[in-house]
Design a protein that fits this description.
Helix content: 10-25%
Largest sheet: 8 strands, antiparallel
Number of domains: 2
CATH superfamily of the largest domain: Naphthalene 1,2-dioxygenase Alpha Subunit, Chain A, domain 1
Bound molecules: FE2/S2 (inorganic) cluster, fe (ii) ion
Shape: globular
Strand order of the largest sheet: 10-16-15-14-13-12-11-17
CATH architecture of the largest domain: Alpha-Beta Complex
Order of helices and strands: EEEEEEEEEHEHEEHEEEEHHE
Number of strands: 17
Distance between the termini: 33 Å
Number of helices: 5
Length: about 325
Amino acid sequence: MSMLEGAPWLLAHTSMLTVNKPFKVSLYSQDYVLWKDIKGNINALKNACPHMGAMLSEGWCEEKTDKSSVVVCPFHALEFDSEGCTILPGSQKRTLPQLEKLDLIIQDDFIWSYGSKEPKQPIPNILNEIAAGYEFIGCTADTSIECDLMSLLLNMHDYNHQNGTHRSLFKIQAVNFHQFIDNGHHSHAYFSMPVALSDFKDKINNPGLFLFPKVLNAHLENYFPSLVILHGETGAGVFKQIHLFIPESPKKSRTYCLLFGLAKHPIFNLLKYKFLDLAKVVIEQDSHILSKIYANNPQKIKLNNEVGMDWVRRNFNNYPQIIEPKLSHAN
Ligand code: FES
Ligand SMILES: [Fe+2]
């Protein structure tokens, strides 16, 4: 199963890293340890200690006099610096690098990586634009799912699963699909969903839910393959819910969500963390269904409005090329 080597993946937002605390990430079947020092420098090395293979991410960090830090192996406490070098006991001399580094591209608070593969696609600029214009609210639901990347992406571009997967959360009465704009690896989907409002209100615990519409208008902006932005607007404010995807291995994929927003009404400050909680529940429900499907089962039935999934399959199967058909359409 392809993991789309050559795509850029957002491994983390810097707020997900605590200063001097190791953080494990996986990409293309390889584990890495990331850590941030007090100066804000971010380091990334392969996670297997070159002595006896302990996971460095299970260890700790030690701050040095210049305020940089090293990661310390939990097994025999060897220290590795940002270059993967160590000083062996009884020696005063720094070794040559013993661990490969992972190449990171850090833009603002966004930590991107091509997993040390040759880039086939540029890093999208959209997150920098959002960060410049909106308040960062938080990150949630960092989850590893037992499913391949294609299945995860199909789920995120499936406009019909609200009534099954998210049945208990939104009482959606219909999905009215309006438009799909296909610009190759970038696309937009517009649809609206009338909801049983009282139910939705209860779910968000009610501070000022008069501000919620009877119809949820969804605008998804998709950057194949690494992210989807849900542009949301309520009377309280504007939300940008960013869903990220990472192929950890052929059968394991990671997803998490970053939330940005802009207040239009003071109640926004009460609601913003509720939105973060809501995103968490949505991702938990998606993870659950994704661990309960037979990914290779041939699809014999097609529903209306599967254009987002057609877009994923076309891009996936031809990556990094973009080939016909163009999938733009308006209903
Ligand atoms: S396994 Fe890491 S120091 Fe021994
Ligand atoms: Fe979902």
